[in-house]
Specification:
By secondary structure, the protein is mostly beta strands. It contains 2 helices and 8 strands, in the order E-E-E-E-E-E-E-H-E-H. Helix content is 8%, strand content 33%.
Length: 154
Amino acid sequence: MRLTSPAFGSGDPIPARYSEKGLNVLPPLAIEGVPAGAASLAVVIEDPDSPLGRGVTHWLAWNIPPGTRHLDAAAPPEGTLVGTDTFGKVGYTGPNPPEGRHHYHFRLLALDEELALPSGATRAAFDRAIRGHVLAEAGLTGIFERYMDEEDGG
């Protein structure tokens, strides 16, 4: 399974338009090679470099149909549910680190079932629900540095 973005390559900077100070929209994502036995997909975006001492969840979505090949938050596939991020928002919160360079891990999970979680569920509830149900995982890492958005005009 593979997760890529036409907006940035793995290990590259995430364009400022996808940051909290930019347009604050999810970068487009491309999905390939979903296992035949997958009943649903999930995506988690997190910043492990947070000064809070724990990973910060920027987006959490599940029950994405396994046939999905392109994903963007403006038009999620029917049935997709979105959870609450670390900031208390149901939806995507783009990069805006308080200082320095941070890594943003985009994780795609192929699951053997749809999750019985309501929209707005927390990361802790999501983590409990996926336990024992992950068939495959793919990742993409982008970086964002404080003030990158100011350098290219947002």
